[in-house]
Specification:
Structural class: mainly beta
Number of strands: 19
Shape: globular
Helix content: 10-25%
Number of helices: 7
Strand order of the largest sheet: 3-4-5-6-7-8-9-10-11-12-13-14-15-16-18-19
Radius of gyration: 22 Å
Strand content: 35-45%
Distance between the termini: 14 Å
Length: 487
């Protein structure tokens, strides 16, 4: 789910694959084919373990998996504990498996092959781009969890590690005449706990290619294709309230786990735009406020969220810290009527970067003491009968020119331009055959088959001669065919 359904999992430590790759791909192809040809229909839901627990069809919680409906958001806020299905836990553990396959085509050939099994400069087929195992659902009456582990493969080797995790203790109460849902939350990725599909962890596009080119500039935890922090690079504890089914407030604190722990979990380590390892100095506060109003078939949310983080580059103390202040503003509108659903989303993040450490660095200094980055995402989607979805989105990241970061930084190779500005469009169409019921062989199966196309109008500050070549930004336009199956 989210970036984390997309293959952008933050897993960074390469490990050797444990089985011959052609055997793995044959098995996955058979699983995908079986999911498509089975005909007998029974209830299903997006995460199959949630389906077994609640007995609800996918359309109850999702307009088009993984986008949440108002009911789905409240299921999450109540700690994934609602029951009513045939197989609530115990005695059956809430386990689910996801397989994602894809075909990637770039408008112009890449400068070099990805490596490994992918020796060509274009047209990459990856049947096991991502395999995830989930624990998702109720543990006790008030305690539930969403825990994901993921294996990815992008040509450079298999990577296996800890992915998105959200553990909650939740309950409801009445206070001074107000109905309150309250909870304690523990997670490993900023915004993974958020119930709306606007913030970074669960924002659109939900599925992208592992070979997708993208902007170099990223904010700490948001951006067109994900932020600097990924699952497992931070750990959080916090609390939240949802008052009168309308007013949401949350405060959480994030800290960096040790590099040894991150390495053992397969997620070591997050890096800043200069290539320095990110280590938070103490606890970084994260806050979230939102108002959601539901009027008949319509719901609208407006909100704000942010984080204040002090970073010790490469964990070398005694040289000051780099300070990141991220402030986000978001909104979501939904209209759900019979077989039609329309969702509009907007997200804007401003990040102030004060380099009290990196500006004075002897090895990789920034050119400015203070920089700004701004990330804008606008997206709209129409879904018919929870089965066919059509979406379009615009992204734009802009900020302060800084030659030390964007021109002279060794990662990625400099393109001779100090600007972080990038912009473009993404289009997506998908078919979800099991939204109203899964195949008889496994009635909780869920599948999404789709195609997306990413168009760049500007990339890393340039429209032409990107990466020091004669290629334009549009040469990185990407066609991605994908199939995702959960069972």
């Amino acid at each position: 789910m989210g970036d984390q359904m997309t293959g952008q999992t933050g897993l960074q430590t390469p490990l050797r694959t444990w089985a011959p790759r052609f055997v793995m791909q044959l098995a996955l192809a058979f699983a995908l084919l079986a999911g498509l040809v089975c005909a007998s229909i029974k209830p299903a839901a997006a995460l199959p373990s949630f389906a077994r627990q609640t007995g609800q069809p996918c359309a109850t919680c999702h307009t088009a998996f993984p986008q949440l409906t108002p009911y789905g958001r409240r299921f999450k806020l109540m700690g994934y504990t609602a029951t009513g299905g045939e197989f609530p836990f115990p005695p059956y553990p809430p386990i689910a498996v996801m397989v994602q396959s894809g075909f990637t085509h770039l408008k112009a050939d890449a400068a070099q092959a990805p490596g490994g099994d992918f020796g060509s400069l274009n047209n990459w087929t990856d049947l096991d781009q991502q395999i995830s195992v989930f624990w998702g659902g109720r543990i006790t009456d008030h305690l539930g969890a969403f825990v994901q582990t993921t294996r990815t493969y992008d040509g450079g080797g298999a990577v296996f590690g800890w992915d998105n995790t959200d553990v909650r203790y939740a309950d409801s109460a009445s206070a001074a005449g107000h109905d309150v849902i309250w909870g304690l939350d523990f997670n490993n990725n900023p915004t993974v706990q958020d119930p709306w599909n606007t913030t970074s962890a669960w924002s659109w596009p939900f599925i992208t290619s592992a070979f997708q080119p993208g902007p170099y500039a990223k904010t700490l935890f948001d951006g067109p294709f994900g932020g600097l922090l990924g699952p497992g690079n931070t750990l959080s504890a916090g609390g939240y309230v949802f008052v009168d089914d309308s007013y949401y407030a949350e405060l959480s604190l994030y800290k960096t786990p040790s590099h040894v722990l991150q390495y053992r979990l397969g997620v070591c380590c997050a890096s800043d735009l200069l290539g320095n390892t990110i280590v938070l100095n103490g606890a970084a506060p994260y806050w979230r406020f939102a108002v959601e109003k539901n009027i008949g078939e319509q719901s609208i949310m407006v909100g704000t969220y942010g984080m204040l983080a002090e970073v010790i580059p490469n964990d070398i103390t005694g040289m000051g810290t780099d300070k990141y202040w991220d402030e986000g503003f978001d909104s979501q509108y939904q209209w759900i009527h019979d077989k039609h659903a329309v969702t509009l989303r907007a997200n804007y993040v401003v990040e102030r970067q004060q380099f009290d450490n990196s500006f004075y660095s002897a090895t990789a200094p920034t050119s400015n003491h203070v920089d700004y980055l701004r990330s804008l995402k606008l997206q709209g989607e129409y879904v018919y009968d929870n089965t066919f979805s059509f979406g379009a989105g615009y992204f734009n990241i802009s900020g302060t020119p800084d030659a030390g970061i964007y021109q002279n930084s060794p990662v990625p190779p400099p393109n001779g331009n100090p600007s972080p500005n990038s912009a473009g469009w993404i289009f997506d169409a998908a078919y979800m055959p099991f939204s109203h019921g899964g195949p008889g062989v496994w009635p909780w199966m869920n599948t999404r088959i789709g195609v997306s196309y990413t168009m760049f109008t500007k990339l890393d500050g340039l429209t032409k001669n990107v990466d020091g070549t004669s290629l334009s930004a549009s040469a990185n336009n990407t066609l991605f065919l994908y199939a995702l199956t959960m069972f």
